[in-house]
Each structure stands twice: as structure tokens, then as C-alpha cells.
Amino acid sequence: MLISMWKKLALVGLTATALVATAAEKPNVVIVATGGTIAGAGASTANSAVYQSAKVKVDQLIVAVPELTNVANVRGEQIFAIGSESFTNDRLLELGKRISALSKQADVDGIVITHGTDTLEETAYFLNLTVHTDKPIVVVGSMRPSTAMSADGVLNLYDAVVVAGSPDAKGKGVLVTMNDQIDSGRDITKAVNIKTSAFSSQWGPLGMVVEGKNYWFRAPVKRHTTQSEFDIDKINQLAPVEIVYAYGNVPPTLYEAAAAGGAKAIIHAGVGNGGMGKWLVPTLQNIRQQGVQIIRAARVPNGIVIRNADQPDDKYDWVVAHDLNPQKARILASIALTQTNSSQELQRIFWEY
Ligand code: GLU
């Protein structure tokens, strides 16, 4: 039977570990597990792409990396055991409320969330917008399952616990540790679907974590966590917001279907600078007149959608998503529309967060 990397490490590491600090000196870090590849298992060590996610429980993850006990007092909670493609709005709310409750506990200094990589960027941004704490919250995943050769989950998890337990990580918003980097949960996106260097941030990482030490180079300037006007403790339902991906020949019926389905906003994943074919404009104007917000984002991975460039947003009463990709724009709009239905307010929120 194939022994997972988590088990092998447990066998080797337990004897090699020397405690370097007493329990009282170390930070208390809670690992909240949701599933994903970091808890995945394949049939052979050569399976780096074909495997089942969410198979290994959080307690096994912790036991398998005894080095964690050198840097923190760690305990685990298994909130879900799913692939992150199955995250829904309800799961985001449940996770957010649990993280918020943990962050208020005096015996919790930092929180790590293990997560599938596919929608990690959405959860990280959601928590960044809604959890009112300056304690470090770090979301982490891996690209290879625990049973694969050169599995990347162990070091990513160790780095996450280091960062979550570090006073210098406080007040920087929700963070992500993948591939030795510390990124902002706001900026990070999955950019490659097969390499361990899968994640990138258009404005660069905030820092690096190497051999248990953080090296910081920048800090986020957009509003987050303690400075956010959104509070997970007061949000019980997210607004329905849908994304329509634009392409040459995209039919207006896709946008009409989203509006008819009850969307309060449609994110137009536009070409270029959030652009669109001429034939779409009357349909989107009409949908806006029905009260649905139109938010222009871009299917181009990097850049900024400029207001009133490409389309006259002031005239049409549309909103631009600024530098947020369509999936992050959906997260922000679905939170913001629980508190306002004004397009001006929505645009302000897109500038500020
Ligand atoms: N699709 C699964 C998920 O997102 C596995 C991918 C991964 O974690 O890398 O949970």
C-alpha cells in the first residue's frame, strides 16, 4: 500500500525533532482544514495529476510534520473535506464565521486554512474582506497530492504555520503561502494549472518565507480585515452575482439568462479593457435598466479596467472592476450588494477594496 508523504514524514521526523521553545513561548496556531490536493492521495508516487483530493484528515497532516511543533502550538479542525471547486456561497459564509470566532479567542494567535488551489483565491479574498481581525490568517494549498514524488504540501504548510504564528504578519490582511512566497489573498490568482509555481500576484508577492523566517517587501494598501466595512458576523447571505465570459460572437442571451436567473449583478469578463461587441451594448443597457448592476472586468489576466475607456460607464451607469479578475469581482460584488444597491457606492467599493 502506498504510504502518504504525511505518514512517511511522521515516521522519520518524530525522532529527529528537538523542541526549541517551550509551549508558553510559542504562538498558538489553529489549522482549519477544508480538503483539496494538500489532503489528496493518488494510486502511485508517479501520480502528480491523477488523484483524489480531500482524503487525508487534518490530524494526519499535523502529525506528519513534527517540525510544526518547533514553531507553534498547533491544533486542527476539519470543517470540510472537499475539493475547492465545490465551494459555494454557503460554505464561504460558514468558513468565514468559524474563522471570525476563532480569531476572537484569546488562546488563538494565528489561523491557517488548508484549501484546494482551484478556488483558493476566492476564499482568501472573501476572508480578507469580511473577517475583522489583525491576527494572521494564512490560506494554503498544494499542487501535488501527499502521495506524489516531490509533494509540495509539507513545506507550504510549514510556511503557513510560521507566518500565522508571526507577530510581523499581523495587520497585513489574509495571506497565502505557496512556493516559498507570501502573497496577499486579495491579489493572488492561480495562473498555471500544473506547476508548483501555480500562483502569482499581478503586483508581486508581499514577501518570502525561507527556513522558518519571513522576509517582507511590501504591504497591501487596499482596505481589508479590520478596516473593512463588511463584517462576516453580520452577513448571513451573499447576493447572487454571475459571471459571463465574453468572446467573439458571444450571444446576448447568456446575459439575459443571468438576469432572468435573479442576478443582482453581472460580471462581464470582457475582452481587452473590459470591452464588448457592439451587439451586446443594448442588451446590457436594458438589463441595467431592470436594476441589475453591470460590472466590467476583463478576461485578460493582468491590467486595470479603466472607467469610461472602451465603454461610457458614466452614461450607462455601469461599474468597472478595477484590477480584480472576474472571480474576485464576483466575491466583492456579492458582499457589497448585501449593503447597497447604488452603482456609485459599488464603484467606490471597487476602488477601495
Ligand atoms: N480541484 C481540487 C481543489 O481545488 C484539487 C486541486 C488542488 O487543490 O490543487 O480542491
What is the number of beta strands?
14
Secondary-structure-derived class? alpha/beta
For this structure, what is the CATH class of the largest domain? Alpha Beta
Query: Strand-and-helix sequence, N→C?
Result: HEHHEHEHEHEEEEEEEHEHEHEHH
Radius of gyration, in Å, reads 21 Å
Bound small molecules, by name, code or SMILES, are: glutamic acid
Residue ranges: pLDDT <50 for 5 or more in a row?
A: 12-19
Terminal Cα separation, in Å?
48 Å
The mean pLDDT is 94
Name the overall outline: globular
Largest beta-sheet details? 8 strands, mixed
Q: Figure out the total of helices.
A: 11
Total of domains: 2
Beta-strand fraction estimate? 15-25%
* CATH domain fold name of the largest domain: Rossmann fold
Helix coverage percent of residues?
Answer: 25-40%
Strand numbers in spatial order across the main sheet: 2-1-3-4-5-6-9-10
Looking at CATH, the homologous superfamily of the largest domain is: L-asparaginase, N-terminal domain
CATH architecture of the largest domain: 3-Layer(aba) Sandwich
How would you describe this structure in keywords?
single chain; 353 residues; alpha/beta; Rossmann fold; eight-stranded mixed beta sheet; four-stranded parallel beta sheet; 11 helices; globular; binds glutamic acid
How would you summarize this macromolecular structure in one to three sentences?
Helices cover about 30% and strands about 20% of the residues. It has about 350 residues and is an alpha/beta fold. α5 (about 120-130) runs parallel beside α10 (about 325-335).
What is the topology?
Blueprint: H1 5-16, E1 28-35, H2 58-63, H3 68-71, E2 73-82, H4 89-103, E3 110-114, H5 120-130, E4 137-140, H6 153-164, E5 175-178, E6 181-184, E7 188-190, E8 199-201, E9 207-210, E10 213-216, E11 241-245, H7 253-260, E12 265-270, H8 281-289, E13 293-298, H9 313-316, E14 319-320, H10 326-336, H11 343-352
Parallel strand pairs: 1-2, 1-3, 3-4, 4-5, 11-12, 12-13, 13-14
Antiparallel strand pairs: 5-6, 6-9, 7-8, 9-10
This protein binds glutamic acid.
The site of glutamic acid has 12 residues, from loops.
